[in-house]
What we know:
By secondary structure, the protein is an alpha/beta fold. It is built from six helices and twelve strands.
Amino acid sequence: MQPKNADWYKNGWSLDIKVQSWVEDTEKQVDFLIKTLSLTGNERILDLACGYGRHSLSLAKRGFPVVGVDITKDYIDDATQNAREQSLPARFIQSDIRDVTFKNEFDVVLNMAEGAIGYLENDAENLKIFDVISNALKPGGKHFMDVCNADHAEHYFPKTNWELGEKAIALAEFDWDKNTRRMQFGSYDIPYGLPAQKPAEFLADSIRLYSALELTEIFADRGMEIIETYSDFDGNKASYKKLPLLVCSLKR
């Protein structure tokens, strides 16, 4: 894999991701969020790095007032159009999430499918996302993040993986830099019904991963505490044997 530029997260996103296999479990994930966070339907929700709004729109359809933020204009335009056409209580903002200045306004903050956590150029920049999370939450508010587990990377990377979706096969490759604690991740999707083509180049995203212990310390510094961790949206407990790390936290 060839590494992308350090600011890779700013560009290269398109609505093509709608056909990727990992977006197919959106409704199941939202069901899990509502159950795990004990949501009643009245909570105001902030969805950071919301993409094209798949979680935000699902929550809005269930009556939750939602604000979604993403850096990619195409995503925000698409989400805004969908919310308008369906008269949903969802608003979308195009912005780098580091520039978000909400203060004690939300009952819930989400970072789904990494939610840009670990995407930024260095540790200092990545920690700014946690500041945004803490600042945006009301006291007693809850945060949920869906990231990759650094403990798994240390035990099992490098590795390859493939996943069968309803519309495509997703092929992925993972590597690990133990010094920077960054995952190098590249993927290629092969849609069904079309001739497979070898990609001209296989570029890798660089993402800073965190362990549950690291996250405990990061949140504690911001007046928050982790209340539960999981390894999947079936509710299984977090484990270094699994790559996903789902973390539910509370602002004191």
